[in-house]
Amino acid sequence: MTSELDRSRALQAAALCLDYPDETLLGRLELLRAAAHALPGAVGAGLARFVGHLADTDPAELARDYVDTFDLRRRTCLHLTYYAYGDTRKRGMALLRFTHAYREADIVIADGELPDHLAVVCEVAARQPGVGLRLIAENRAGVELLRMALADAGSPYVDVLDVIRAVLPEPAPRDLDRALALARSGPPAEEVGLEPFAPPEYMGAQR
């Protein structure tokens, strides 16, 4: 996808779709349909398919599925640094890289947001691609692992990941190898007796 406008639309739509499916998101279905109609080929078709899922599914079921998918499964966490660092203290340093990148670009995220949440990074990439796309590229193995896990689970959210991947270069072999290694081993764990760097409530995908 070469058009900057298409790339921005795709990333903004993905950011919305990865948010918790509350009344605010469901009230934007027409906006998302319009974005799907404007996007080319398979990207628009995939987005349209996911928007149809949102429209046709009971809101309570959507909410349960979101929590089950992103809050309760380690392999489908929406926080990109979790894949490489788990709940170790090294993840705190990785999060600081996101925070510093946002600060240098005068980007402010909402209180309570973790800067590596994929919806946050997609929104940043839609507005300032030089910042957001670089951060996604640096965590490409996590994106690929998330996509694999969603596909394995038969989740409709795989369409949203494909929208994101459509605006990125093809993954490097090292990213695919890293994703497969993480799929086998899972995120690293902190040594016994050390506290996680952030409270448990920040480890899920509620935004």
Automatic annotation (TrEMBL):
A Pfam short name: Nitrate_red_del
Record keywords: Transport included? Answer: no
- Provide the residue span(s) of the region labelled Disordered: 185-207
Keywords of this entry: Nitrate assimilation
Q: Which domain of life is it from?
A: Bacteria
> Which PANTHER family has this protein been placed in?
NITRATE REDUCTASE MOLYBDENUM COFACTOR ASSEMBLY CHAPERONE, NITRATE REDUCTASE MOLYBDENUM COFACTOR ASSEMBLY CHAPERONE NARJ
Recorded protein name is Nitrate reductase molybdenum cofactor assembly chaperone
- Lineage, top ranks: Bacteria, Bacillati, Actinomycetota, Actinomycetes, Jatrophihabitantales
